[in-house]
Amino acid sequence: MSGIVLSASVRQNLLSLQSTAELLSTTQNRLATGNKVNSALDNPTNFFTAQGLNNRASDINNLLDSIGNGVQVLQAANTGITSLQKLVDTAKSLANQVLQAPSGYSTKSTVTSAVALTGNAANLVDGTIIKSGDVLTIASTGGGTATSITFGASESLDQLNVALAANNLSASLDSANKLVITTTNDAASSTIGAVVYPGAGTGTLTFGAAVAPVADAGSQTIRANLVAQYNNVIQQITTTSQDSSFNGINLLNGDDLKLTFNETGKSTLTVKGVTFNAAGLGLASLVAGTDFLDNASANKALTLLGSASTTLRTEASALGSNLSIVQLRQDFSKNLINVLQTGASNLTLADTNEEAANSQALATRQSIAVSALALANQSQQSVLQLLR
Question: Which of 10, 147, 149, 329 could bridge across to 138 with cysteines, CB 3.0–4.6 Å?
């Protein structure tokens, strides 16, 4: 082959044809793959830059599954809190039914003066039975504040009732003008505390023994049924909080949720869990025959339920805020992935319209080059004919 000598025109046309074939092959490869940069040999800078962008997009995309699970964990907890709030409202309704039910006692506790007063409702002090400076003390009744009253020169029944109210007591004069002290509905189940009179004066008023309250069987049956219903609701509060989990994470049963938002692990969010069973909300089951016997017991339950309701609303607000943050970061990550992938594509994707035009032009050039090479060969054939 070393002895073969090509003419300059043949050699030039052959090189042109080889170059055109190479360009046509490259163009056809771009059309087939859709990329103008298929390897580092095509464009090292664009290839490795695009690879880095795609790698980052892939890493963030892998985090989206975890973020999506986090959204569901928060929504499960929020659903649980909504149900818990409804259960607390149901318990409130039961406690309010106690307040509206007939008194649980046919007779409340009373204590009556042994003698009739010579005074009247406008002025109990008569100078003999009740004097200036006499002190009436009554021990705490039904959890009320112990009473200590020093009679002035003019002491009305209304003034006495104001002083007795804090101790769940009220006073009245019966038909015989005797002073009668009775428990209020709030302490209907209680017996009046020890009564001492006079404490420091010289009045001759005395009181008989306190009469214990007499329970009303029908009313107490109603109240016992309300206790049973209340306890069922309290039990449901505990089970509902325990069931508010997603994928093994329960923000209402003490679990924490930690989410990572970027590929370096430096952007995170930790949502602290709470324990919202009945005990965690400050609630407990009641005891029939002990609780809901009177208004005081119902009001105590309502106070605890009100506090639980406030706690639930506060946590619901916190969960809502965290859910908004996570959803915003989820949308941000999706948009960022699109930006990264678009940037990588801009560096490597081919313009199919341009490449199609190039392919057609190169095919034409290749055809012309083949014709030119044939013409160059014909000139050599002419020389060979002369030699013959």
Answer: 147
CA distances from 149 to 124, 167, 173, 197, 289 (A): 13, 12, 18, 10, 34
Distance CA 335, CA 329 (A): 10
Mean predicted lDDT score pLDDT of the chain: 85
φ/ψ bin of 138: left (φ > 0), alpha (ψ from -120 to 50), beta (otherwise): beta
User: For residue range 118-134, what is the model confidence (pLDDT) as tens digits?
Assistant: 888 889 888 788 888 88
Say whether 361 sits in a helix, a strand or coil: helix
26 contacts 354 by C-beta, under 8 angstroms: no
Whole-number Cα distances in Å, 63 to 49, 289, 336, 337, 343 = 22, 57, 12, 11, 20
- pLDDT score recorded for residue 12: 67
Take residue 58 and report the two structure tokens written for it.
């892939």
The answer to whether the bond into 44 is cis (omega within 30° of 0) is no
CATH numbers and ranges of domains, the chain: 58-101+218-341 (1.20.1330.10), 105-215 (no CATH)
**How many angstroms separate the most distant Cα atoms in the chain?**
170
Cα angle vertex 168, ends 164, 173, to 5°?
Answer: 55
Separation CA 50–CA 350 (nearest Å): 14
Question: Do the beta carbons of residue 359 and residue 24 sit within 8 Å?
Answer: yes
What is the reported pTM? Answer: 0.71
* C-alpha triplet 376, 382, 383: angle, nearest 5°: 100
* pLDDT(245) > 70: yes
Q: Report the alpha-carbon distance of residue 243 to residue 249 in Å, rounded.
A: 10
Give 276-306 pLDDT, tens digit per residue: 999 999 999 999 888 998 888 899 999 999 9
- Whether the pLDDT of residue 383 is over 80: the answer is no
Q: What is the pLDDT of residue 1?
A: 47
